[in-house]
Design goal:
One of its GO terms (biological process) is glycine decarboxylation via glycine cleavage system. It is globular, with a radius of gyration of 27 Å. By secondary structure, it is an alpha/beta fold. It starts with a helix and ends in a 14-residue tail after the last helix. Helix 2 crosses helix 25, helix 5 runs parallel beside helix 16 and helix 25 crosses helix 28. The strands form 6 sheets. It has a 7-stranded mixed beta sheet with strand order 2-8-7-6-5-3-4, sandwiched between helices. The protein has a 7-stranded mixed beta sheet with strand order 15-21-20-19-18-16-17, sandwiched between helices. Helices cover 37% and strands 11% of the residues. It contains 30 helices and 24 strands. Strand 13 and strand 14 form a beta hairpin. Among the domains are: 242 residues, 3-Layer(aba) Sandwich (Aspartate Aminotransferase, domain 2); 223 residues, 3-Layer(aba) Sandwich (Aspartate Aminotransferase, domain 2); 150 residues, Alpha-Beta Complex (Aspartate Aminotransferase, domain 1).
Length: 939
Amino acid sequence: MSHAFSSRHIGPSPSDQDAMVRRVGYDSLDALMQAAVPSGIRSTSALGLPAAQTETEALSTLRALAERNNPGVSMIGLGYHPTVTPAVIRRNVLEDPSWYTAYTPYQPEISQGRLEALINFQTLISDLTGLPTANSSLLDEGTAVAEAMTLIRRATKGKDQLPIIIDAGLLPQTLAVTHTRADALGIELLEADLSAGVPDVEAAGTIIAYPRADGQVTDPRPAIEAAHAHGGLAVVVADPLALVLLSSPGSLGADVVVGSSQRFGVPMFYGGPHAGFMAVRQGLERHLPGRLVGVSVDSAGRPAYRLALQTREQHIRREKATSNICTAQVLLAVAASMYAVYHGPEGLRQIASEVNASARLLAAGLRSGGVEVAESGFFDTVIASVPGSAAGVVAKARKAGVHLRLVDADHVGVSTNESTTRAHLDAVWDAFGVSGVDEAPESLPADLLRTDEILTHPVFHEHHSETQMLRYLKKLSDRDYALDRGMIPLGSCTMKLNATAEMEPISWPGFADLHPFVPAEDAAGMIELIETLESWLAEVTGYAGVSIQPNAGSQGEFAGLLAIRAYHRSRGDDHRTVCLIPSSAHGTNAASAVMAGMRVVLVKSTDQGEVDLDDLRKQCEAHGDDLAAIMVTYPSTHGVYEHGITELCEIVHAHGGQVYVDGANLNALLGHAQPGVFGGDVSHLNLHKTFCIPHGGGGPGVGPVAVAEHLVPFLPTHPLHPVEGKREGVGAISAAPYGSAGILPIPYAYIAMMGAEGLTDATSVAVLSANYIAKRLESAFPVLYTGDSDLVAHECILDLRPLTKAAGLTIDDVAKRLIDYGFHAPTMSFPVPGTLMVEPTESEDLAELDRFCDAMLAIRAEIDDVVAGKWPAGDNPLVHAPHTMRTLLDWQHAYDIGTGAFPAGSVDDKYWPPVGRIDQAYGDRHLACSCPPVEAFAD
């Protein structure tokens, strides 16, 4: 067997590939790709990447990079704190493929484990914030605040032209991200120090820090009351660990509470990924961005979890979407929720109290040595005044292995955390030249102390031993279907192998324990990794520059459009605000364009699913003076290599517009074509698709933005960027300078181990596998769109509409029936209602591809039996799917148990869904988004 990593990543063996190629009708894989990829865009030379490394070599390289980082003892704070990830959670969630290879829970019947974990998260956030409804996570704290700002705009009718007051005491990165978003949308922000008083102006809302970046815990009630007096909304930005001890913002009158759950057992990861959160008062639920997990009932009337209010999804609402967010930070939200489950309310109270005690002791020691610090009113952070000596104090502490925050020439910030020890305090005192103390007065305001109980649900009281926790995690993961069970053939989502060698480095302390604001020399290995990865991504896409900062595809889209907008403005073309979007595009495109301050104009698609070039010319001529850009996905959203892509680029460029090529389908191009060469000006890339960052049940992801030379000056910047030249400009897109840097070792390892040839082969086999499935199934399910050579790209759309209509069935019936055969359904009804979009990827072997095809053909036969009248329309294996183990106890169907529950013939290895068909409409009518009482599950 070959020792090359690519032979382990690519599923079909060379002999299987030969058989598949022949089935598709070609003599070789090269011949297939020559026919599939249009000659006008095909690369003429190999990618300029280093030679492929073995797994051992790549891990050795990454180990050397990690060892060049100096995490030290971080006491910098600013929203990022060392934590202790319980080993049982690290090993059995963050490092467990049953959790990290799962997909977004659109098929809730096979997602009950992660949905329960997320509803635990929502309950945790709801309890701490004192508000009834929380979402299942956002991308980070900075973007969560930005989302809250737009929520204010949506929810305050008639006030959309009024300014929003924002607390200058917020974290600097949060202010930066929010200003970037506000500028794009034309929202006026009034930045004010709310600890000194609230500006007496009419505003749509106020965003308040609790605690502040300087550590002070000030009473938010005056600002909340002032906001309400003007008819506005009050948003509080809170530290959830502090809320264990402090009064909940909801009890103080807040309408919305946002923040980051990083302190709940998630490593700093050099800035991310971390799960942001948002909770809202009653009446604002339908304005929530992101995902919301709710409780409904299944076909047996038993409680079951599902995603609620799904009509808010971007591909339905498009430019009217409430947000462009398509994923969240599910894996990190699960980890944070399990941290709370493991410790329970008493454990969290003890942790929070010890963090505060360390801060109090620290402050008392500094004061006793004559250093000016706050007497009280702080949770974990103090700012010490050392006129003219701040840099020296920070340098001395760093020499002792402790990172402090250099506020300015006269002030040093110090934050304590759950890892803080007396030895750490001694090192800090020594850096200030003072002696320590053993006692300290209370520091939290007495009138802001929490008096109500938190986390009263039994789930937070039952799993405190490692045995209990291990079994709980195992029980939940067993309820789910992830890549560790079988293929997830989702079109547009590219659910492929996330190799263990790629995943292993993210837990290494040199990467995981690094604070994003340490000096650049203390992150030398990580910065080299990032810059190398950015150069590799530029090479494979054909662009001049890449920024890794966007921490999701949605953020990458936004960053790309901001670059285009800034470019036009730099040329005096402020009026260029029209963004052309094909009617078949993913809805996040339209939502992102609106967020970037652009006006969306649709371009028609042809009957073949391609962009209608005649209509494009018409729209370009109509908007020649105000055309900013076109957003086009390539290969198209319909899974086809469009031959007109170069002409499309020429048409838009001729009218002064820029071409944004959505990189969602880059898995069909890598090594064969480069968007930056065939006409694109900017692309965002989905590293959780093409470059193997796992989906995590709905996040994390990374959405780098790649641009042509003329757009490089307009890539994202950050006020705290380690590279001084990248601190001013377009603005911050994500809270951390490098976004979700902690998971970048995954795509780095993937590219390093695959090399140019491996990446090219992966694309070829992905296209081969999609065409193999299309060829095997075309007689049973028509393939809706193909290219000029009667070939698809890396995915195919199966048209089920005539069949389901004839049988009185729905696309849902087919999707749920696939569960009985042991499969996750392909993408349903996107981009065409009533169809399935199938993407097998390069990682599934021929046996698994055939197993899927056999299942689909068997389902076709079942549909035919319904049409023929063998089974009643209301009592057949499809309408009652999926079949649970419970149904065997009282079988009352027109078909036998074997046909219904064991259609694939497997008894020993069958996956049993824990619940039956879930009633989606019931869940939306009876919105319940926190842990249901135990009694709800009783028979």
